[in-house]
């Protein structure tokens, strides 16, 4: 019991010693804390204000628009194979691709150029009254590379896994610009997708649209051939009076110029050789079946037109299906919250700066007080030893 009383007594003495040290240096501690607090207030007042605006978008998952092209290939069967159909694949609209687009240099440059943000980003270097840069030195005029870095520092993009949303955060010196920057990104994201991103359904629709246009042209040509045949005279099943030209490839595939590197482009010799090459190529690619009975040729024309009409009807129905599928994937994201100008500033947080500065100054001042007391005691000890 006596030992515990001594321990408690020593603790009281230690605490009393601590108090004596702090009380002895209280003026120094108060001065340091006061000075640090004043500096913190002044610095926080001089710091540039910044405002933060946010927008939230949610990716719209692709539903996989391969139905139209699969049905087309299945219904046309051998026609798709003969036409050399190459099935499109891939999808646009998931979060990873949206994040990649938003963080790309192309998006940032488009935002800066379309919204003319260079004078805003480099306001100190811009002469608003004259409408030009203050300096004529190209090295002192802000360039796009610096602007992109500054813009990427002002606008951040993050993905929230739990909510499965993408947050675009803009931080700038005015609330209006902070919100505008974010909304510019959303606008440019939609422009980029509309201009560049081909969904599976859109590729299907474009493919079917092209096939439909070609088939319509063939169908009209078939009708013209039948009409021309009927105007040619009587139809006989025995008399062989028709020579049928059969082209081995489409006329569009015939190259019209030999591309001879030794010739001067546009010269008369070049033109003549090009025309000669065209004629020789067409002759080489066309063979003629002679003495075909007129009735057989007419039957061939009618069957060909009937086949083209069936293919046209099938392509038309598939084209409508493809347009429906494309409409389902037209947008790859949906805006949940659009950025609005914030009322409260994001920084500087003056109260937080002052509190943190006060606590740091107090801790430092107390530490300095004990350190000075320790040095004083050590100096006194050395003096006592020297006197002894």
Index terms:
2 domains, Bacterial polysaccharide co-polymerase-like, 8 strands, 388 residues, 4-stranded antiparallel beta sheet
Question: How would you describe this protein?
Answer:
- The protein is of the alpha+beta class.
- The protein folds into 2 domains: 51-199 and 331-337, Bacterial polysaccharide co-polymerase-like, CATH 3.30.1890; 203-328.
- Helix content is 61%, strand content 12%.
- The chain contains 13 helices and 8 strands.
- It has helices at 2-24, 26-46, 67-76, 78-82, 95-102, 105-114, 118-121, 144-154, 175-196, 200-230, 268-285, 294-328, 350-387, and strands spanning 51-59, 126-127, 132-133, 155-160, 165-172, 240-247, 286-293, 333-337.
- It has a 4-stranded antiparallel sheet. Strands 2-3 form a two-stranded antiparallel sheet. Strands 6-7 form a two-stranded antiparallel ribbon.
- Helix 3 (67-76) packs parallel to helix 10 and helix 6 packs across helix 8 (144-154).
- The longest helix has 38 residues, at 350-387.
